[in-house]
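Collaborator request, handled under Task 6.
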Amino acid sequence: MSKFKLLIAGVVVALVSLGGVSTAQAAAKVAVDLPNEAVAGGTSVAVPVTLSDFTDSDLTVRFVAGAGTLSIANNSALTLNPGYPSFDAQSEISFHGATADVVSALATNVSWTAPGDAASSSLLSMRVEVTHYVSGTTYDPLTGHTYDYVETPLAWHDALVAAQGMTYQGKPGYLATITSAAENDFIGTKSGAPSIWFGATDDKGFVNEARAAVNKAPIDFDSQPTGDYYWAGGPEIGAQFSVGLGTVTPVDGLYNSWAQGEPNNWAQSEGCAVTNWNSVGLWNDLDCNGQHSYLVEFSTDLTIFETSVFTFDNITGDSKDAVPAEPVVEPVVEPTLAETGYNAWLIASLAIVLVGAGAGLRIAARRK
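C-alpha coordinates returned to the collaborator:
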Protein backbone atom coordinates (compact mmCIF):
# COMPACT_ATOMS: atom_id res chain seq x y z
CA MET A 1 0.00 0.00 0.00
CA SER A 2 1.47 3.34 -0.98
CA LYS A 3 1.70 6.10 1.59
CA PHE A 4 2.61 9.75 1.72
CA LYS A 5 4.12 11.60 4.61
CA LEU A 6 2.44 14.73 5.94
CA LEU A 7 4.69 16.97 8.01
CA ILE A 8 3.48 19.88 10.11
CA ALA A 9 6.51 22.04 10.89
CA GLY A 10 7.41 25.23 12.69
CA VAL A 11 4.93 24.68 15.51
CA VAL A 12 5.17 26.49 18.85
CA VAL A 13 3.95 24.39 21.77
CA ALA A 14 3.37 26.18 25.08
CA LEU A 15 4.63 24.13 28.00
CA VAL A 16 2.73 24.84 31.18
CA SER A 17 3.26 24.31 34.87
CA LEU A 18 0.60 24.81 37.53
CA GLY A 19 2.58 27.80 38.69
CA GLY A 20 1.74 29.51 35.44
CA VAL A 21 5.29 29.49 34.03
CA SER A 22 5.60 28.44 30.43
CA THR A 23 8.29 27.84 27.88
CA ALA A 24 8.04 27.30 24.14
CA GLN A 25 9.33 24.82 21.61
CA ALA A 26 9.58 26.69 18.33
CA ALA A 27 10.67 23.71 16.25
CA ALA A 28 8.41 20.92 17.51
CA LYS A 29 7.11 18.79 14.63
CA VAL A 30 4.65 15.99 14.04
CA ALA A 31 4.79 13.79 10.93
CA VAL A 32 2.13 11.19 10.10
CA ASP A 33 2.22 8.51 7.41
CA LEU A 34 -1.36 8.02 6.23
CA PRO A 35 -2.59 5.26 3.94
CA ASN A 36 -3.40 7.18 0.75
CA GLU A 37 -5.77 4.49 -0.45
CA ALA A 38 -9.04 3.32 1.02
CA VAL A 39 -8.62 0.42 3.47
CA ALA A 40 -10.98 -2.56 3.46
CA GLY A 41 -13.19 -2.87 6.52
CA GLY A 42 -11.66 -4.92 9.31
CA THR A 43 -8.15 -4.50 7.90
CA SER A 44 -5.43 -3.03 10.13
CA VAL A 45 -2.66 -0.80 8.78
CA ALA A 46 0.35 0.79 10.45
CA VAL A 47 0.20 4.55 10.94
CA PRO A 48 3.69 5.79 11.89
CA VAL A 49 3.60 9.06 13.86
CA THR A 50 6.90 10.89 14.26
CA LEU A 51 7.42 13.50 16.96
CA SER A 52 10.59 15.56 16.84
CA ASP A 53 12.16 18.46 18.73
CA PHE A 54 9.94 18.15 21.79
CA THR A 55 12.35 19.19 24.54
CA ASP A 56 10.31 18.72 27.71
CA SER A 57 10.58 15.54 29.75
CA ASP A 58 6.97 14.27 29.61
CA LEU A 59 4.18 14.43 27.06
CA THR A 60 0.49 13.66 27.01
CA VAL A 61 -1.06 12.56 23.71
CA ARG A 62 -4.65 12.12 22.55
CA PHE A 63 -5.67 10.28 19.35
CA VAL A 64 -9.21 10.37 17.96
CA ALA A 65 -10.24 8.30 14.94
CA GLY A 66 -12.94 9.69 12.66
CA ALA A 67 -14.15 6.11 12.17
CA GLY A 68 -12.75 2.68 12.94
CA THR A 69 -10.40 2.07 15.86
CA LEU A 70 -6.83 2.86 16.86
CA SER A 71 -4.39 0.68 18.77
CA ILE A 72 -0.94 1.21 20.26
CA ALA A 73 1.16 -1.90 20.75
CA ASN A 74 4.23 -2.32 22.99
CA ASN A 75 2.85 0.31 25.36
CA SER A 76 4.23 -0.85 28.71
CA ALA A 77 6.21 2.39 29.14
CA LEU A 78 3.08 4.51 28.64
CA THR A 79 0.27 5.26 31.10
CA LEU A 80 -3.35 5.64 30.06
CA ASN A 81 -4.95 8.88 31.18
CA PRO A 82 -7.98 8.51 33.50
CA GLY A 83 -11.16 7.47 31.75
CA TYR A 84 -9.46 5.80 28.78
CA PRO A 85 -9.84 2.04 29.20
CA SER A 86 -7.35 0.52 26.79
CA PHE A 87 -4.62 0.95 24.19
CA ASP A 88 -6.33 -1.64 22.01
CA ALA A 89 -9.16 -1.10 19.49
CA GLN A 90 -10.39 2.26 20.72
CA SER A 91 -11.92 5.19 18.85
CA GLU A 92 -10.11 7.50 21.27
CA ILE A 93 -6.88 6.92 23.20
CA SER A 94 -5.14 9.31 25.59
CA PHE A 95 -1.96 8.58 27.52
CA HIS A 96 1.19 10.12 28.91
CA GLY A 97 4.80 9.12 29.38
CA ALA A 98 8.40 10.18 29.21
CA THR A 99 9.02 11.97 25.93
CA ALA A 100 11.52 9.38 24.70
CA ASP A 101 9.05 6.57 25.37
CA VAL A 102 6.21 8.42 23.65
CA VAL A 103 8.37 9.17 20.60
CA SER A 104 9.48 5.53 20.36
CA ALA A 105 5.97 4.09 20.71
CA LEU A 106 4.37 6.37 18.15
CA ALA A 107 7.06 5.81 15.55
CA THR A 108 6.35 2.09 15.14
CA ASN A 109 3.39 0.92 17.19
CA VAL A 110 0.29 2.87 16.08
CA SER A 111 -2.23 1.06 13.91
CA TRP A 112 -5.71 1.76 12.56
CA THR A 113 -8.44 -0.76 11.82
CA ALA A 114 -10.90 0.38 9.18
CA PRO A 115 -14.61 0.20 10.08
CA GLY A 116 -17.07 -2.26 8.56
CA ASP A 117 -16.30 -5.49 6.73
CA ALA A 118 -14.40 -6.50 3.63
CA ALA A 119 -17.27 -5.36 1.42
CA SER A 120 -16.58 -1.73 2.39
CA SER A 121 -13.51 0.48 2.48
CA SER A 122 -12.61 3.75 4.18
CA LEU A 123 -9.97 6.44 4.22
CA LEU A 124 -8.32 7.24 7.53
CA SER A 125 -9.34 10.43 9.35
CA MET A 126 -7.62 11.04 12.66
CA ARG A 127 -6.89 13.79 15.14
CA VAL A 128 -3.65 14.09 17.10
CA GLU A 129 -3.11 16.30 20.16
CA VAL A 130 0.24 16.58 21.90
CA THR A 131 1.04 18.71 24.91
CA HIS A 132 3.26 18.89 27.97
CA TYR A 133 2.11 16.51 30.68
CA VAL A 134 1.35 18.05 34.06
CA SER A 135 0.67 15.41 36.70
CA GLY A 136 -2.97 15.21 37.74
CA THR A 137 -4.38 17.47 35.04
CA THR A 138 -6.80 16.73 32.27
CA TYR A 139 -8.66 19.04 29.92
CA ASP A 140 -12.01 18.97 28.21
CA PRO A 141 -11.58 19.39 24.44
CA LEU A 142 -15.23 20.50 24.12
CA THR A 143 -14.78 23.55 26.35
CA GLY A 144 -11.03 23.90 26.73
CA HIS A 145 -11.38 23.99 30.53
CA THR A 146 -8.60 22.34 32.50
CA TYR A 147 -9.10 20.22 35.62
CA ASP A 148 -6.64 19.20 38.31
CA TYR A 149 -7.52 16.34 40.63
CA VAL A 150 -5.85 16.91 44.00
CA GLU A 151 -5.59 13.68 45.96
CA THR A 152 -4.68 15.26 49.29
CA PRO A 153 -7.85 15.12 51.45
CA LEU A 154 -9.09 18.39 52.93
CA ALA A 155 -12.25 19.76 54.48
CA TRP A 156 -14.49 21.41 51.86
CA HIS A 157 -13.67 25.04 52.71
CA ASP A 158 -9.96 24.29 52.98
CA ALA A 159 -10.18 22.73 49.51
CA LEU A 160 -12.00 25.85 48.29
CA VAL A 161 -9.18 28.10 49.54
CA ALA A 162 -6.50 25.79 48.18
CA ALA A 163 -8.15 25.79 44.75
CA GLN A 164 -8.32 29.58 44.74
CA GLY A 165 -4.56 29.69 45.35
CA MET A 166 -3.75 27.66 42.23
CA THR A 167 -3.21 28.95 38.69
CA TYR A 168 -2.87 27.35 35.27
CA GLN A 169 -1.88 29.38 32.21
CA GLY A 170 -2.51 32.49 34.25
CA LYS A 171 -6.08 31.43 35.05
CA PRO A 172 -7.11 31.23 38.73
CA GLY A 173 -8.43 27.97 40.07
CA TYR A 174 -11.74 27.24 41.78
CA LEU A 175 -13.53 24.15 43.02
CA ALA A 176 -15.10 22.71 39.89
CA THR A 177 -18.55 23.89 38.87
CA ILE A 178 -20.43 21.25 36.89
CA THR A 179 -23.00 22.95 34.70
CA SER A 180 -23.92 20.51 31.93
CA ALA A 181 -24.41 16.80 31.31
CA ALA A 182 -21.42 16.81 28.95
CA GLU A 183 -19.14 18.36 31.57
CA ASN A 184 -20.45 16.01 34.24
CA ASP A 185 -19.75 13.01 32.02
CA PHE A 186 -16.27 14.29 31.19
CA ILE A 187 -15.39 14.92 34.83
CA GLY A 188 -16.93 11.65 35.95
CA THR A 189 -15.07 9.49 33.47
CA LYS A 190 -11.87 11.43 32.88
CA SER A 191 -10.94 12.74 36.33
CA GLY A 192 -10.29 9.27 37.68
CA ALA A 193 -11.51 10.39 41.08
CA PRO A 194 -14.18 8.92 43.39
CA SER A 195 -16.13 10.98 45.97
CA ILE A 196 -14.41 14.30 45.38
CA TRP A 197 -15.37 17.76 46.57
CA PHE A 198 -16.59 20.18 43.94
CA GLY A 199 -17.80 23.76 44.26
CA ALA A 200 -21.42 23.30 45.43
CA THR A 201 -22.68 24.19 48.91
CA ASP A 202 -25.85 25.05 50.81
CA ASP A 203 -24.00 26.10 53.96
CA LYS A 204 -25.28 29.62 54.68
CA GLY A 205 -21.89 30.96 55.72
CA PHE A 206 -20.10 29.59 52.65
CA VAL A 207 -22.91 30.74 50.36
CA ASN A 208 -22.74 34.30 51.68
CA GLU A 209 -18.95 34.29 51.45
CA ALA A 210 -19.27 33.45 47.74
CA ARG A 211 -22.01 35.99 47.11
CA ALA A 212 -20.07 38.73 48.88
CA ALA A 213 -17.08 38.08 46.61
CA VAL A 214 -19.16 39.20 43.61
CA ASN A 215 -21.23 41.87 45.41
CA LYS A 216 -24.43 39.82 45.53
CA ALA A 217 -26.91 40.26 48.35
CA PRO A 218 -26.56 37.71 51.15
CA ILE A 219 -29.20 35.09 51.80
CA ASP A 220 -30.98 35.61 55.13
CA PHE A 221 -32.25 32.09 55.86
CA ASP A 222 -30.80 28.73 56.86
CA SER A 223 -30.33 27.12 53.47
CA GLN A 224 -29.35 23.61 54.59
CA PRO A 225 -32.80 22.45 55.73
CA THR A 226 -34.22 23.57 52.38
CA GLY A 227 -31.40 22.24 50.20
CA ASP A 228 -30.76 25.56 48.45
CA TYR A 229 -27.51 24.84 46.63
CA TYR A 230 -25.21 27.54 45.24
CA TRP A 231 -21.95 27.66 43.32
CA ALA A 232 -19.01 28.89 45.41
CA GLY A 233 -16.61 29.78 42.62
CA GLY A 234 -15.95 30.10 38.91
CA PRO A 235 -18.04 32.13 36.47
CA GLU A 236 -21.19 30.95 38.30
CA ILE A 237 -20.06 32.10 41.76
CA GLY A 238 -22.93 32.95 44.08
CA ALA A 239 -25.63 31.58 41.76
CA GLN A 240 -28.24 29.11 43.03
CA PHE A 241 -28.80 26.04 40.85
CA SER A 242 -31.07 23.68 42.84
CA VAL A 243 -33.49 23.58 45.75
CA GLY A 244 -35.00 20.73 47.74
CA LEU A 245 -34.01 17.76 49.86
CA GLY A 246 -34.63 14.29 48.49
CA THR A 247 -36.70 15.65 45.64
CA VAL A 248 -34.75 18.36 43.83
CA THR A 249 -36.07 21.20 41.73
CA PRO A 250 -33.56 22.82 39.35
CA VAL A 251 -33.41 26.61 39.59
CA ASP A 252 -34.07 28.23 36.20
CA GLY A 253 -33.60 24.82 34.57
CA LEU A 254 -29.93 24.68 35.60
CA TYR A 255 -28.12 21.36 35.51
CA ASN A 256 -27.77 19.02 38.49
CA SER A 257 -26.93 15.34 38.92
CA TRP A 258 -27.94 14.46 42.48
CA ALA A 259 -28.12 10.77 43.30
CA GLN A 260 -31.57 9.44 44.12
CA GLY A 261 -32.75 10.83 47.44
CA GLU A 262 -29.91 13.35 47.59
CA PRO A 263 -29.16 15.87 48.89
CA ASN A 264 -30.77 14.91 52.19
CA ASN A 265 -28.84 16.89 54.85
CA TRP A 266 -28.48 13.68 56.84
CA ALA A 267 -28.28 14.36 60.60
CA GLN A 268 -28.74 18.04 59.75
CA SER A 269 -25.00 18.24 59.12
CA GLU A 270 -24.44 17.95 55.37
CA GLY A 271 -23.87 21.16 53.45
CA CYS A 272 -21.23 20.46 50.78
CA ALA A 273 -21.22 18.31 47.67
CA VAL A 274 -19.10 15.51 46.25
CA THR A 275 -19.31 13.94 42.80
CA ASN A 276 -18.62 10.35 41.72
CA TRP A 277 -20.37 9.21 44.87
CA ASN A 278 -20.89 5.43 44.62
CA SER A 279 -21.33 5.84 40.87
CA VAL A 280 -19.68 7.93 38.16
CA GLY A 281 -21.27 11.36 37.81
CA LEU A 282 -23.68 11.17 40.76
CA TRP A 283 -23.64 13.86 43.45
CA ASN A 284 -24.19 13.63 47.20
CA ASP A 285 -24.14 16.05 50.12
CA LEU A 286 -21.71 15.35 52.95
CA ASP A 287 -20.49 17.04 56.13
CA CYS A 288 -18.31 19.97 55.04
CA ASN A 289 -15.76 19.06 57.72
CA GLY A 290 -15.12 15.67 56.16
CA GLN A 291 -11.74 15.08 54.53
CA HIS A 292 -11.91 14.36 50.78
CA SER A 293 -9.86 14.85 47.66
CA TYR A 294 -11.04 17.67 45.42
CA LEU A 295 -11.24 18.82 41.83
CA VAL A 296 -9.92 22.21 40.74
CA GLU A 297 -11.16 23.83 37.53
CA PHE A 298 -9.45 26.52 35.46
CA SER A 299 -11.44 28.53 32.90
CA THR A 300 -8.96 28.07 30.11
CA ASP A 301 -10.50 28.29 26.66
CA LEU A 302 -10.18 26.79 23.21
CA THR A 303 -7.59 29.33 22.10
CA ILE A 304 -5.16 27.54 24.42
CA PHE A 305 -5.85 24.07 23.06
CA GLU A 306 -6.86 24.57 19.44
CA THR A 307 -5.13 25.77 16.31
CA SER A 308 -6.35 25.88 12.74
CA VAL A 309 -7.60 22.58 11.38
CA PHE A 310 -5.76 21.34 8.33
CA THR A 311 -7.46 19.18 5.73
CA PHE A 312 -5.27 17.01 3.52
CA ASP A 313 -6.88 15.85 0.28
CA ASN A 314 -3.99 14.44 -1.68
CA ILE A 315 -4.20 10.73 -2.60
CA THR A 316 -1.35 10.46 -5.10
CA GLY A 317 1.55 11.17 -2.78
CA ASP A 318 3.28 13.51 -5.20
CA SER A 319 2.70 16.70 -3.21
CA LYS A 320 0.92 18.09 -0.18
CA ASP A 321 -2.32 20.04 -0.44
CA ALA A 322 -3.46 21.88 2.66
CA VAL A 323 -5.52 24.90 3.59
CA PRO A 324 -6.86 25.89 7.00
CA ALA A 325 -10.41 24.68 7.46
CA GLU A 326 -12.95 26.78 9.32
CA PRO A 327 -11.69 26.87 12.93
CA VAL A 328 -13.93 26.90 15.98
CA VAL A 329 -11.85 29.74 17.39
CA GLU A 330 -9.88 32.13 15.20
CA PRO A 331 -6.28 30.82 15.25
CA VAL A 332 -2.97 32.58 14.98
CA VAL A 333 -1.33 31.23 11.82
CA GLU A 334 2.05 32.04 10.30
CA PRO A 335 1.66 33.65 6.87
CA THR A 336 4.54 31.73 5.30
CA LEU A 337 5.05 28.12 4.28
CA ALA A 338 8.07 26.01 5.09
CA GLU A 339 9.59 23.63 2.59
CA THR A 340 8.82 20.69 4.84
CA GLY A 341 5.15 21.42 5.40
CA TYR A 342 2.62 23.94 6.56
CA ASN A 343 3.20 26.18 9.54
CA ALA A 344 0.72 26.81 12.33
CA TRP A 345 1.10 28.27 15.79
CA LEU A 346 -0.05 25.89 18.46
CA ILE A 347 -0.74 26.93 22.05
CA ALA A 348 -0.55 24.18 24.73
CA SER A 349 -1.94 21.43 22.50
CA LEU A 350 -1.08 20.31 18.99
CA ALA A 351 -4.37 19.54 17.24
CA ILE A 352 -4.25 18.16 13.72
CA VAL A 353 -6.99 16.64 11.63
CA LEU A 354 -5.62 14.55 8.82
CA VAL A 355 -8.16 13.60 6.20
CA GLY A 356 -7.59 11.57 3.05
CA ALA A 357 -10.09 12.12 0.25
CA GLY A 358 -11.13 9.54 -2.35
CA ALA A 359 -11.05 10.06 -6.07
CA GLY A 360 -14.75 10.93 -6.12
CA LEU A 361 -14.42 13.59 -3.41
CA ARG A 362 -14.18 17.18 -4.50
CA ILE A 363 -10.76 18.50 -3.59
CA ALA A 364 -11.44 21.04 -0.87
CA ALA A 365 -7.91 22.27 -0.51
CA ARG A 366 -5.94 24.60 -2.72
CA ARG A 367 -2.71 23.14 -4.22
CA LYS A 368 0.19 25.09 -2.75
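The cover message to the collaborator said: "The chain has two domains: 3-135+301-355, 145-298. The longest helix spans residues 99-108. Please let us know whether this matches your experimental observations."
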